[in-house]
Design a protein that fits this description.
Blueprint (H helix, E strand, L loop, with lengths): L49 E4 L5 H12 L3 E6 L5 H14 L4 H9 L1 E5 L8 H5 L4 E5 L6 H14 L4 E5 L16 E2 L13 H19 L12 E7 L1 E3 L14 H7 L5 E2 L2 E2 L1 E3 H13 L2 H4 L3 E4 L6 E2 H11 L1 H7 L5 E2 L1 H10 L16 E2 L2 H7 L6 H21 L2
Helix pairs in contact: 1-2, 1-8, 2-3, 5-6, 10-11, 10-14
Length: about 400
Amino acid sequence: MSTAPGNQDHPGGSAPTALKAHPPEEPPADNAEVHPAGEPATPNPNASTFVLVTGGQGFIASRLILQLLTAGYTVRTTVNNLAQEAKVRKGLAAALTAAGAVDADADCHLRRLRFFEADLASDNGWSDAMKGCTYVHHDMTDDDAPKESVLRVLGAAHEAVIDRVVLTSSFATIGYGHPPDANRVFTENDWSIDNSSLPACHRSLLQAERAAWEYVQRLPVGSGRHGNKMQLVVLNPVGIYGPVLSGLQSSSTPSAIARLLDGTWSALPDLHLGMVDVRDLADLHVLAMTASDESSSGQRFLAASDGRPTSLSGIALAIRKERPQLAKERKVPSVSVPNWMSKAASLVSGGGSKELPPMLGPVRNTNNARARDQLGWRPRPSYETIMDTVDSLVAVEEAAAAQK
């Protein structure tokens, strides 16, 4: 089975050092930022570059859209039903306002966002969504059939002559199925082993990512723009945490921290979580999109915060220390239980316990040097991510309660 190429070979395709946006079929929404009356407009060099982000209502996608709009790009996104557009726009507007944007600036950003109806289970809509785009971002972890979906997106991107596709894969394709080894450090060169210990959801992601690499490697040279092949970059994040945009919770919304707050876990499994902030992951998407072909094309990038994975007991301790009243009200647990007890509980209980077994066991250490060295990525400390996640989840709950 083929693996992702390394630094020397780029079967994912190569392109000129400076990728140029190809002329859009429609004029960009804004060629300059809008400012209050009397102030000169500032040209926006990125407005003529069209970027598609699939599944705009998702946890990762919505944050990426926000990053791209703030950077001045003209963004398209897909949703299963256009009825979702209003909710996504509302969440983005709230985030822009919270970040300090005045109404005029927020409106300017959102005018560069257009929605398309396209379902990952169908070919309909993808050609229109990608027409005139230079880049495509696709999160293949937020789908029940990731292999079929990623091949559909790549096929449409090839037909639309997209320069570069950035895929969100997962650490699930790197660090699972291996013999237990607490001293091992996983990198992008590792692949999960497809054996009986690999959970079904991890297996489907592993098959999907391998299929994506094989698809791009089979493309003939000269089949893409500039006489080169369409480029592929894959990001492999560990557990994704961080603040949730208002009203845009999804199946990939932070779960372990949510379970500490909602009473799912009355005791603490011996669990260590690899962690990356969704804001840092969005930054990495943009860096992977804009980097030179030598730095990113045809490569995988492991997305994880610096240092060792964080223990669940450490997260609970941080909540009790920084938010003592909340910890008391939510009965955040302080007692740890051994792995055998957690595994036994998973066999007879529902909720989050069913997902525990593959996460238990030795710590899975990671190395993020490739993203740091080649793309200049700088993730924030895990402690900041933990507390921002807690505050965000509580704020979302309070907002929902206020609407009832």
